[in-house]
Design brief:
The complex is a heterodimer. Chain A has strands at about 10-15, 20-25, 30-40, 50-55, 60-65. Chain A is mainly β. Chain A has one domain (about 5-60): SH3 type barrels (Roll). Chain A has a 5-stranded antiparallel β-sheet, with no helix packed on it. In chain B, strand 18 (about 310-315) and strand 19 (about 320-325) form a beta hairpin. Chain B starts with 13 loop residues before the first strand and ends in a 7-residue tail after the last helix. By secondary structure, chain B is α+β, with helices and mostly antiparallel strands. In chain B, the strands form 6 sheets. In chain B, strands 13, 14, 15, 16, 17, 18, 19, 20 and 24 form a 9-stranded antiparallel β-sheet that branches. In chain B, strands 6-5-4-7 form a 4-stranded antiparallel β-sheet, with no helix packed on it. In chain B, helix 2 (about 30-40) crosses helix 11. The longest helix of chain B is centred in the middle third of the chain and has 18 residues, at about 280-295. The chains are: A mainly beta, B alpha+beta. The interface of A and B includes residues 52 and 54 of A. The complex binds FE2/S2 (inorganic) cluster (FES) and fe (ii) ion (FE2). The site of fe (ii) ion (FE2) has 4 residues of chain B, from helix 10.
Chain lengths: ~60, ~450
């Protein structure tokens, strides 16, 4: 399981819906991060947008900065 | 207990005209529940100081009545006060005392709020709520009115309350004695160190009435005076003013605020103070000189303890601080004390004052310990079935108040009691309870804003 509090900006993370996001900033509340979509099979219009991403939606760290 | 034909409190449990007040208003759990509603949701309450949240994202968790609130500065630099309770199931969204954050995230199910109060994160918004929850309806609950006055932050839950300045009325002059720089420049004070917080086993009105102007209890501070904790080495503070000036008790009957004050004779310079340190005493000598130049006759007025209705106490001079008596049940009070200092005072002055302030006030302060002992035991001894049958006496000085008081060319705003010769009066205490009873009886601010009804 990912310790969300330790995710640094630039880290790439895979989500439950198959999307990949890159961490923009981390409020370190252990629940949310601010991230930018790099890909989204669910909705391609999300690519490039920034959203708050919920900890339980993050499944795997892909790369660290 | 209520007397037929009269309101329950005014002239009933609170009989100011006769100088008698029932112990029930201090020890009854039902009356306590009623005052949370009728006093604390309608009055203006002190929340904190701007210097505690200088940067965007800074927050300080404070309280209004029994409720936890968040004082914070949003990303656009606007100051807010929010109820510290999640809109989903009520969890405290901020469990720290102070800090800096981009969001307040609820630890229970993870709803997340921006520093402007907007609900910005809802877990499984798309999946579980099918994107249907109207997030704009579920931001943090914000106070109805907020005012920043010379750095201090005040708020009320009541949208129909008058503005803070109207609520203050002419008492503003006395609040300024605590908030203006020592040399008389407007504002210019900041919070020194952290906020002291501690619990005491008594009703919040015991300390509130004490700070309203109970100088009768000076006797109970005699041991501190003997120890000589004062900043010049004797007494508990520098007291020469009371030997050469007039000692006044001043109140505002329509507002419920009251304070003590000293007025120096014309042409008389402010007596030397803080003589334990040459640097500090020189700092204050220069400030007092400039204050007299800047303020003219009003510079002859020196502040003494006061109470801004309902639960904010002022200590404008020595030690300069603001206290809030947070109600925590009928039988418990949480005291929060903020210490104030000129923001641009030299470090040596701030350090000297810090040492003096904590020697005097706070849970370890010698003077405050005397007070707490009195309030705590008075409360405990008033709870019994027999004790409750016997009202307290507030008759001291009844009928000797003066309007339009003037001394050596200086008119003093408010209703004044000159206690230079009489030594003491309970007229400020009666004023506090008169207003408290009005709040308990009145159904709206239309009734409470009595000054608006005058021709
Ligand atoms: S109580 Fe806050 S998210 Fe449920
Ligand atoms: Fe005292």
């Amino acid at each position: 399981m990912i310790n969300v509090r330790t995710l640094e900006p630039g880290t790439r993370v895979a989500l439950t819906d198959g999307s990949t996001v890159e961490i923009v900033s981390n409020p370190k509340d252990g629940i949310w991060v601010f991230a930018r979509y790099l890909s989204s099979p669910r909705d391609t219009s999300l690519v490039g947008t920034e959203e708050m991403v919920f900890a339980q939606d993050m499944v795997e760290i892909q790369t660290t900065p | 207990m209520a007397i037929a034909g009269k309101r329950r409190y005014t002239g009933g449990l609170v009989d100011v005209a006769a100088g008698q007040i029932s112990r029930e208003i201090f020890v009854s759990d039902e009356i306590y529940a009623e005052e949370l509603e009728r006093v604390f949701t309608r009055a203006w309450l002190f929340v904190g100081h701007e210097s505690q949240i200088p940067k965007p994202g800074d927050y300080f968790v404070s309280g209004m009545g029994e409720e936890s609130v968040i004082l914070c500065r949003d990303r656009e630099d606007r100051v807010h006060v929010f109820l510290n309770s999640c809109r989903h199931r009520g969890m405290k969204v901020c469990r720290y005392d102070e800090g800096n954050t981009p969001v307040f995230t609820c630890p229970y199910h993870g709803w997340s709020y921006a520093t402007d109060g907007k609900l910005v994160g809802v877990p499984y918004f798309r999946e579980a709520y099918h994107s249907k929850l109207d997030r704009s309806q579920f931001g943090l609950v914000e106070v109805a009115q907020l005012e920043i006055y010379k750095g201090t932050v005040w708020a009320t839950w009541d949208p129909s309350a008058p503005s803070f300045l109207e609520y203050l009325g002419e008492f503003r002059r006395y609040l300024d004695l605590a908030l203006d720089a020592w040399d008389g420049r407007e504002g210019g004070t900041e919070v020194l160190g952290g906020v002291q917080k501690w619990l005491i086993p008594c009703n919040w009105k015991f300390p509130a009435e004490n700070f309203s102007g109970d100088s009768y209890h000076n006797i109970s501070h005699r041991s501190v005076d003997l120890v000589g904790i004062g900043p010049s080495g004797s007494g508990r503070r520098d007291m020469r003013e009371r030997l050469i000036g007039r000692r006044l008790q001043i109140c505002f009957p329509d507002r419920g605020h009251q304070t003590g004050a000293y007025v120096l004779p014309n042409e008389e310079p402010t007596p030397p103070a803080y003589q334990h340190s040459p640097v500090v005493s020189e700092y204050f000598r220069r400030c007092e000189e400039q204050r007299r130049e800047r303020l003219g006759a009003w510079g002859r007025v020196t502040g003494a303890p006061g109470e801004l209705f309902p639960n904010t106490a002022l200590h404008p001079r020595q030690p300069r601080s603001i206290a809030v008596w947070h109600p925590r049940g009928a039988h418990r009070t949480e005291v929060w004390r903020w210490y104030l200092v000129d923001a641009d005072a030299p470090p040596e002055v701030k350090d000297f004052l810090r040492q003096y302030y904590i020697r005097y006030s706070g849970p370890a302060g010698l003077t405050e310990q005397d007070d707490m002992e009195n309030w705590n035991y008075a409360h405990a001894a008033s709870r019994g079935t027999i004790a409750r049958r016997h009202p307290y006496s507030y008759e001291q000085g009844l009928g000797f108040e003066v309007e339009n008081y003037e001394w050596e060319g200086l008119r003093i705003p408010g209703t004044v009691m000159d206690v230079t010769d009489s030594k003491s009066s309970e007229h400020n205490l009666r004023n506090f309870y008169r207003r408290w009873a009005q709040f308990m009886d009145a159904n709206s601010w239309d009734e409470l804003a009595t000054w608006r009804r005058r021709p």
